[in-house]
Specification:
The protein is an alpha/beta fold. The strands form 11 sheets. The chain has a 4-stranded antiparallel sheet. Strands 12-13-11-14 form a 4-stranded mixed sheet. The mean pLDDT is 93.
Length: 914
């Protein structure tokens, strides 16, 4: 006999070990009849090797596992390829902190080779944490194929890609602005930049005009905005939030249509402190409506200024070093007293000097967004430096066409817009990082700076010998590649490229990619570019974008808010299945509002299934050798067969379409509402009855339906379904499928849907539902059993009443059943299945008291609705409140209006009572 409850703590480790030992996570062997449609492949978005399972991982990997388990049960050769990312900055930071905590020397004191060896030691000891945590979630990856972005195979692939792109002119070295992290002394990607809102200021500086130039500046205006008074000025005012960068100014920009400064374009200012003569240029970047309309241009320290500088031919002068300290290396006119000064100390010094010398005109307090390194926490500095770049524009064109012509599709399709917007406006991709942990760039420098890019040092030396004519010492580039560079090769490098492997032949391109919207451009687009360039084929046929998991109020989860839901804690307490089902059923929205209560609710769903299996077991529902569901005769059995078939169609179509929420909803409806609440209830009288033929058929049908239900449930809730499959193995005839993970998906013909049975049982279900709802609306005491009468039923209805009389009495909890010509006094009428019925409430409820109760509750709903309407009608509330607060109020309004409508209908019924 099944235990009273499912114990996930004991069962999940045992079941997962059994699955892994079975070998079923690996693709099945190829068959001579296999075609492209018989393979299904998906590569895991590699989590950082430093990472721990968070709720976003739980969502993303649950959806992938649903796809893998479903297609495996459909008989396909399934490859779900796992792996982890070496996570350059994150991993280096972890090991450096460990060294510091242990009182060891820094990495620079230790030296590159020793430090990298230390990181590999850490990886061997601690780098597998998230892989084990994915197992706890139930991820059925083929762990025998697990890859790491720094393993030797991927190293070889990365080197080959770099060298080939360089020889094709698609990788080059250039001096451009990058996001520079002064703490780690490396360039970082936009994804590693965290924008933080901070208190700051605009410092308004007066830059003196050179060569004695003056101009008339408007200072008063009429009501139409026309200037009425002017003053003669020998300076132009600019505003900046970063005064320290003025040391690198090489121009001042004004809008070409700004009449105030039209006569100054082409003139010069003398830059305070350094005395540098810099031009005033016309550029659309200057906004006449903001501040003075004139902006200082520092091409080497601002991304927008860099573009203005390129258009205007302005010099780009670096005034900071890699640590964010002022340097005069590029700009000898920077006074010596600033040399080596921290950028923020320089800011204070410059502002103080501006105030003392009289060219500080105003300090305007503001709150603005400042970029910070997400790992270091320090302010990021736009910095001009030599880096390696990919010609992303050229590689982007085939990637754009592939999605335009449908070779790869996005689900939902709306995300294609993000993809296209980024690729059509793509900038060169900076791929070098000033780190030690990562793929070292395969470039060697000769004594004269000549660069030799080859796959190995031996090949570089050979190339240098050909160039110089003699053996020449070479120095390898110190930088490593951006982590995203190796990740861009993930779909084909993990399958053995550049070798022509069986996996590549069989599983590339992959079928699906499941990922988040925030890395469409950082990862998805780059995989498209690299896959098309090196494989002449898209890397995946479909991209399924999952939403962002937020808290129940729609707010982003963060440790500081205390609203983080830890998936491992949930698994410890409730098991993996409730978490997985919750992830699936909520996955249909961009912002997933998650609460612990929802997860607990779906644990109850698992309990419902478990209890249904116990009920079936207690009523001797066992598999029968040779049982054919196509031959069942009982109406309830023909009905459940059809309902199961419809559920299978809905679940299959939803999973195939990437609509995991629809799949989960269809399962919930079938298991809870159809199988448990109705079929098993309808089967009880049969089990307790004396018709042995009907009893035997219903027992066999219950066992068969339960088995098929477990199969449908397995991709989403694998643990509880596998446990039931195992525990029920001895109930009746032996199954041909020992494990559920290796079982075949239900193959149910259309003929299993029986319209007559559906109509018959549908009539009964609707009738009982109406009775229950009416009793609840009328506040009928739970133990009361009012009489039910049908008013002048037609012959077909009368036959149904006779056939199902006992079920109506039992399930409807009514005292008697009759047919009458007119409703009796004190009876409430309703219509069900085209027939009019009456529920006798006289003497059961106090009609006057019930009218008063309903009237009072209707008034309460009206008050609630009016209160919310006042809020929503206030423009200040709607514009200033957080979106999730406004949504919450709208939801309250909808609930109040729905509650009011329901009670009004109940009151109308009472008023109609004779």
């Amino acid at each position: 006999m099944l235990d009273k409850t499912f114990d996930p703590t004991a069962a999940e480790p045992r079941l997962y070990a059994m699955w892994e030992d079975s070998g079923l996570f690996a693709p099945r062997d190829a068959r001579p009849t296999d075609g492209a449609a018989d393979a299904y492949s998906i590569v895991i978005p590699p989590p950082n090797v430093t990472g721990s399972l968070h709720i976003g991982h739980a969502l993303n990997n649950t959806l992938q596992d649903i796809l893998a388990r479903y297609h495996r049960m459909r008989g396909k050769a399934v490859l779900w390829l796992p792996g982890t990312d070496h996570a350059g900055i994150a991993t280096q930071m972890v090991v450096e902190r460990q060294l510091a905590a242990a009182g060891n020397v820094s990495r620079r004191d230790m030296g590159r080779d020793a430090f990298v060896a230390k990181v590999w030691e850490w990886k061997a000891e601690s780098g597998g944490t998230i892989v084990q945590q994915l197992r706890r979630l139930g991820a059925s990856c083929d762990w025998s194929r697990e890859r790491f972005t720094l393993d030797e195979g991927l190293n070889a692939a990365v080197r080959k890609v770099f060298v080939r792109l360089h020889k094709e002119g698609l990788i080059y070295r250039d001096k451009r602005l990058v996001n520079w992290d002064p703490h780690f002394q490396t360039a970082i990607s936009d994804l590693e930049v965290e924008q933080k809102e901070m208190d700051g200021a605009y410092w308004h500086f007066a830059y003196p005009l050179a060569d004695g130039v003056t101009y008339e500046h408007p200072v008063a205006f009429d009501e139409d905005g026309k200037a009425t008074e002017w003053e003669t000025r020998d300076h132009i005012v600019v505003a900046t939030t970063r005064p320290e960068t003025m040391l690198g100014d090489t121009g001042v920009a004004v809008h070409p249509d700004d009449a105030r400064y039209a006569g100054l374009v082409g003139k010069f200012v003398t830059l305070p402190i350094v005395g540098r003569r810099i031009p005033i240029v016309a550029d659309d970047y200057a906004d006449p409506t903001k501040g003075s309309g004139a902006v200082k241009i520092t091409p080497a320290h601002d991304f927008n200024d860099f573009q203005v500088g390129k258009r205007a031919g302005l010099a780009a002068l670096n005034v900071m070093d890699a640590f964010g300290r002022i340097t005069a290396a590029d700009t000898p006119d920077v006074p010596a007293e600033y040399e080596g000064m921290d950028r923020f100390a320089a800011r204070k010094t410059i502002v103080a000097r501006a105030e003392a010398e009289g060219w500080l005109k105003e300090i305007e307090k503001t709150r603005h967004v400042v970029p910070h390194g997400d790992r270091s926490g320090v302010v990021i500095e736009p910095w001009l430096t030599d880096q390696w770049y990919v010609d992303a524009h050229t590689l982007a064109q085939p990637a754009i066409r592939a999605v335009e012509q449908g070779d790869t599709v996005f689900e939902p399709k709306s995300y294609e817009k993000i993809y296209f917007e980024w690729l059509r406006n793509i900038e060169p991709w900076c791929i070098s990082r000033q780190l030690w942990w990562g793929h070292r760039i395969p470039a060697w420098y000769g004594p004269d700076g000549t660069i030799f890019v080859e796959e190995s040092e031996d090949e570089a030396r050979a190339a240098a010998h050909r160039h110089y004519g003699v053996e020449t010492p070479l120095t390898q580039d110190e930088d490593v590649l951006d982590t995203w560079f190796s990740s861009a090769l993930w779909p084909f490098s993990t399958m053995g490229w550049p070798e022509k492997t069986e996996d590549l032949e069989r599983f590339y391109p992959t079928s699906d990619l499941v990922t988040a919207a925030d890395i469409i451009f950082f990862w998805v687009a780059r995989m498209m570019m690299m896959g098309l360039h090196f494989m002449d084929e898209v890397p995946f046929r479909r991209v399924i974008i999952n939403g962002l998991v937020r808290d129940e109020k729609g707010q982003k989860m963060s440790k500081s808010k205390g609203n983080v839901i830890d998936p491992l804690g949930i698994i410890d307490e409730l098991g993996a299945d409730p978490l997985r089902f919750t992830m699936a059923i909520l996955s249909g929205t961009r912002d997933i509002k998650l609460s612990r209560q929802r997860i607990e609710g779906y644990r109850n769903f698992g309990t419902k299934l478990w209890n249904a299996a116990r009920f079936a077991q207690m009523n001797e529902a066992r598999r029968v050798d040779g049982f054919d569901p196509a031959t069942v005769d009982q109406t309830i059995n023909r009905w459940i067969r059809g309902e199961l078939t419809k559920a299978e169609r809905a679940v299959s179509e939803a999973i195939e379409g990437g609509r995991f929420d629809d799949a989960a909803s269809a399962l919930y409806r079938f298991v809870w509402n159809v199988f448990c609440d109705w079929y098993l209830e309808l089967a009880k009288p049969v089990f307790m009855g004396s018709d042995e033929t009907a009893k035997a058929e219903t027992r066999a049908m219950t066992a068969w339906t339960l088995d098929q239900t477990l199969k449908l449930m397995h991709p989403i809730m694998p643990f509880i379904t596998e446990e039931l499959w195992d525990k029920l193995a001895g109930e009746g005839a032996a199954r041909s499928e020992a494990t559920l993970i290796g079982a075949a998906w239900p193959d149910l013909p259309d003929g299993f849907i029986d319209a007559a049975a559906e109509g018959e049982i549908g009539w009964l279900v609707d009738l009982v539902t109406e009775i229950r709802q009416l009793k609840a609306e009328m506040n009928v005491p739970q133990g009361a059993r009012p009489g039910l009468s049908f008013i002048a039923p037609d012959a077909a209805t009368a036959d149904r009443i006779a056939r199902h009389r006992e079920l109506i009495l039992t399930l409807g909890r009514v005292s008697d059943l009759s047919t009458v010509e007119a409703a009796a006094s004190g009876a409430v009428t309703f219509v069900s299945g085209g027939a009019t019925a009456a529920l006798s409430l006289a003497g059961i409820i106090d009609l006057s008291a019930e009218r008063a109760r309903l009237t009072k509750e209707i008034a309460a709903f009206e008050d609630d609705a009016a209160h919310v309407n006042r809020k929503l009608g206030n423009p200040n509330f709607v514009s200033r409140a957080a979106p999730e607060v406004v949504d919450e109020q709208r939801q309250k309004l909808a609930e109040a209006e729905a509650g009011k409508a329901k009670l009004q209908a109940a009151l109308a019924r009472l008023d109609a009572v004779g």
